[in-house]
Amino acid sequence: MTRYGILGFGHHARKRLISAFEGAAHSQLAGFWRHNEQKAAADAAEFGIAAYPTADALCASPEIDAVFITSPDAMHLNDVLLALHHGKPVLCEKPLAMRTPEVEQMLAAAQSAGVFLGVAQNMRYYQSVELIRRWIAEGRIGAPQLVHAQVCHDGTRSPRTWICDPSLACGGPIGDVGIHCIDAVRYVLGDDVSQVATLGHGDAISGQVEAHAALSLAFHSGAVGAVTLTTRGRYRSRLEVTGTTGVIACENALTVDHDVEVQLLRGWDGVEQQERVSNADGYSRMLDAFSAAIQGKEPFRAPATDGLLNQRILDAAYDSMRSGHAVRP
């Protein structure tokens, strides 16, 4: 059993990770650190988990085998370096950092310490994403030509108040959920992005970060894609890939809250095949996969070396939005 400590315990940990650890077979939540001491005491009492007085104490504890970092984006670099300094394997929330040089610094530190660093791209462990990737690899739709990933949600009611603070957040929805979409399309296609062009706009609520955006992506294979995002709508997520002989589509492909249908379409002939799957265990599967990886039992699907590629695409997306020109990652 791998014993985890959460560094930066907050809304995400309460909403998703407590239940994820409960559903994991080989991963246990053994402690956490939270900046707000009063809230930390309340969380410790509610969940029956040890609250550590400092981040350093958590990372240094012999009762903690691995550190899961869920702090705001701007804190990831220092938090990762602290955990690595204590020789603890690190699973860090996405995006890994504010900019690419920070990720490169993390990777150098991990290599120097001889410690594994992974990214919490939990959607690589969603059954919907796995199935779409497998159908593409099996040639069910021929050569992929178009890909589209979309996430919509109402960010005006988010309890994560820091998400609109550019000193803490890498950006708006591009950095928050767009990074999941970028990673998902790269993963299902087994391909990498060669160019990014971005349009994005903010509003009075989002302040200095974007509220909605559209990214155009060019892939090395010749496929092209789009990632569309808004924090001013009702929840929706979609993943769709069009190939030379068919289409794979899944409405709400990136949700864990209910079952979804993955459909294989053949033009005018309609649905040729569909499978109903659940992503409810995605977080738990990711935790157990990371535990297995640090024990040398199996590769982890989202190592930080791959997270570096996502960060470069993210940087290119924001550079494009500011400049008005397409950018190569």
UniProtKB/TrEMBL annotation:
GO terms for molecular function: nucleotide binding; oxidoreductase activity. Residues 3-120 form the Gfo/Idh/MocA-like oxidoreductase N-terminal domain. Gene3D superfamilies: Dihydrodipicolinate Reductase, domain 2, NAD(P)-binding Rossmann-like Domain. Residues 131-248 form the GFO/IDH/MocA-like oxidoreductase domain. It holds the Pfam family GFO_IDH_MocA. The keyword Cell membrane does not apply. Keywords: Oxidoreductase. Belongs to the Gfo/Idh/MocA family. This is GFO/IDH/MOCA family protein. It comes from Acidobacterium capsulatum (strain ATCC 51196 / DSM 11244 / BCRC 80197 / JCM 7670 / NBRC 15755 / NCIMB 13165 / 161).
